[in-house]
Amino acid sequence: MTAAIAPTRSFAGLARYGLIIALVLVFSLFSTVAPTFLSVGNLQSILVNNFTLLAIVSVAMTFAVAAGGIDLSVGTAVDFASFAFVSGILAGLPVPLAALAGLGAGALVGVVNAILISAIGVSPFLATLGTLFIGRSIQQLLTDGGNPVYLPPSGVPAAFRFIGHGTVAGLPVPPLIAAVIIAGAALLFARMRFGRVVLAIGIQPRTVRYSGIGLAKHVAVTFILASTIAAFAGLILTATVTVYIPSSGNGFMLNAIGATFIGTTFSPLGRPNVAGTVLGVLLLSIVANGLLLTGLNFYWQQVGTGLLIFVVLAFSFVNKKAVGA
Amino acid sequence: MSADVQFASLPERPTAHTLPTGGKLAAAALRFGSLLAFAAILVIFALTAPYFLTVGNIGNVLGQSAISGVLAIGLTIVLIAGGSNVVTGGIDLSLAANMGLSAAVYATLIQLGFSDAVAAVGALATGLAIGAVNALAIVFAGIVPLLATLAVMNVVAGLELVLTQNTVLPASTDLLTVLSSSDGFGIPILAYVLIGFTIIVTAIVQFTPLGLRLYAVGEFPEAARAAGLPLKSLVAGAFVASGFCGGVAGILSVAYLSGSTTGSGEMLLPVVVTALLGSVFSRRLVPTIGGTLISTLFVGFLINGFQLLNLPSTLVSGVQGLLILIVVSATTLLRKREV
Fold first, then answer.
1. Contacts from A115-118 at CB under 8 Å and sequence distance 24+?
2. What is the pLDDT of residue A153?
3. What pLDDT band is residue B128 in, cutting at 50, 70 and 90?
């Protein structure tokens, strides 16, 4: 027993920093292969184009995973928010009101999930799968079978443009919003009772139930929170491209799951955590951007991304062995 | 002696007694309820849609359901061996992409001038290989199935695009012509393929010791381990079997679409729904091959009825979603009342 501890510890240490090591490796690989990778313009493009939206959706996913579930309907929340926002702007609502409508529409998805999961007791996977399917139908019905809803590029209000393309002190607004959400979520898990309860639910739901903490209430709030956070991504998405395309949010879902679980596998105890998720998103965004710059065929890029996630996950094997889980 | 005593006390009497009596009622209510719902929907369509109850149409539905049916059966095997927890247990997200790549391999081999036999073996080998990668990742590297198959799904979907350059690869051979034709009664050959495939897999999974072991591993992994079952091999085998089903579905889809087309990923969630819904049609509310077949046909008839009634096809996914939610909520509420 004691003899085995020394090498195990060093392995655990390695695995704990495995994600950062992977990031450094990928980073240096692309900076040597693609000369333009390290340019300021490109790094900014990673942040704005690849990182922001996925990071927000992944933080939303992290909440659901932290509570021991999964949220397959984050993309639906993105889409609902996007649709309501666009409709609000088209109807001539002031931008803050339209944005609120968007957030509300996103949160609605979470409310449905919360009722199914907390009040009825459906497993999160099935409940959110159901809302995903129904959400898809609703979107197609609202858009006559899936037609995009365009906004006149010239006629959008300044505040709308600001969300997508504005800058504060020289920094683009979308990543700033993402940063605020990430910081808020990290704070919630690290410093607040709610975050600790959510994590406890993910690890020992029965203990939480028997301790008299409102299990159902906390799970409900978690899923509503997840959808609301995802809704922010919907607002930014719309404000950046000034169009609503049905079901475009679903593209984020699988990558968000990937990022969240990459973060989970690399955390010391295998727990979902915001920092790990953000590093996972960073890894995915850098790979997506780097592969694009290498001039590889677009189709090979998907293979590359998949392989990389696979290798990174296989690394967790070392981690798990080391932790002894 | 002591071992005997232990075994005798293992089945927990109280739960074993209370759950079946009450649980049976609840399960029966749900099972017959869902069968009744199925029957009711069929009757409504039969009364409202003029051509619904013709042999040709029923055969058509069977034929159209062949591809998703084979995929759903593959997923069901994984569900049985992996248990009910979808995140850590039985799920294979790479199945739809597997079908796409297998179909692409088949069509490519045909275009390169190989024979039907070689192409079919190529497609099946592709499916098996993908299943093997999943199995290795899950059983030996210990990656959670949801994630392992997610990563494999990305790789496989990418490979399909690389192979086909995102274009349609037409293919027509003798085998494909046979598969896509109809018999004298206007029933597509694919319908027979689905029935035949279901019978074979049902025979293996439902009526052999091997199948029983799969259930044991999925429902009570600890007990299965204690009983000396080769846990890892059985779970790995289930993922390989599911990969094989992906290969079979690939060949069927080449036949159905006269070539390989992109967009196989769209099949994934409907197939997951079908497989999960299948357990409602079984006696003990567990995944079974027969239940999955019924659920496949349920979805097939639903889509068909919508088409015949000229209802917007966009409603189908909504109805599917509602179905899962109603069925699963009912199951959960019924079970809750028992406890």
1. A115/A220, A116/B325, A116/B329, A117/A69, A117/A219, A117/A220, A117/A223, A118/A216, A118/A217, A118/A219, A118/A220, A118/A223
2. 72
3. very high
Closest CA to B270 of B128, B84, B89, B75: B75
- Is A311's pLDDT higher than 60? yes
Which pLDDT band holds residue A3 (cuts at 50, 70, 90)? Answer: very low
User: Can you give the pTM of this predicted structure?
Assistant: 0.82
Do B145 and B92 meet the contact criterion of CB atoms below 8 Å apart?
Answer: yes
What's the longest Cα–Cα distance across chain A? 71
- Residues from chain B contacting residue A132 (CB–CB below 8 Å): 269, 321
Band (B53; pLDDT cuts 50, 70, 90): confident
Q: What is the mean pLDDT of residues A109-133?
A: 90
Quick: pLDDT tens for A158-185: 888 888 888 888 888 999 999 999 999 9
**Mean pLDDT score, B222-240:** 90
Would you state the pLDDT for residue B86?
67
Q: How far is B192 from chain A (nearest CA, A)?
A: 30
Contact call for residues B135 and B235 (beta carbons, < 8 A): yes
Nearest partner of B147 among A314, A88, A77, judged by Cα: A314
**Nearest-by-CA chain B residue for A144:** B314
In contact, A284 and A54? CB cutoff 8 Å: yes
Q: How far is A167 from chain B (nearest CA, A)?
A: 35
* Angle B33-B35-B41 from CA coordinates, rounded to 5°: 100
Name every chain B residue with its beta carbon within 8 A of the beta carbon of A115.
none
Query: Token pair 């609502």 is at which residue?
Result: A93
Which of B146, B321, B325 is opposite residue A137, by nearest beta carbon?
A: B321
Inter-chain residue contact B318 with A136, CB threshold 8 Å: yes
* Half-sphere exposure in the Cβ direction for A117 (13 Å, CA): 31
State how far the Cα of B296 lies from the Cα of B272, in Å rounded to an integer: 11
> Where residue A9 falls among pLDDT bands split at 50, 70, 90?
very low
Interface touch B329/A122, C-beta < 8 Å: yes
Q: Return the DSSP state at B51.
A: T
How many CB pairs lie under 8 A apart between chains A and B?
Answer: 148
Question: Which chain B positions have a beta carbon within 8 Å of A313's beta carbon?
Answer: 137, 141, 143, 147-148, 151
Q: What is the four-CA torsion angle of A150, A155, A160, A163, rounded to 10 degrees?
A: 80
* Contact check, Cβ <8 Å, A313/B141: yes
What's the mean pLDDT when you consider all of chain A?
A: 85
Rounded Cα distance between A122 and B331, Å, is 9
Q: B330: how many CB neighbours lie within 10 A of its CB?
A: 17
Query: Cα B294 from chain centroid?
Result: 11
Reading phi first (left if > 0) and then psi (alpha if -120 to 50, else beta), residue A68 is in left
Identify the pLDDT of residue A141. Answer: 86
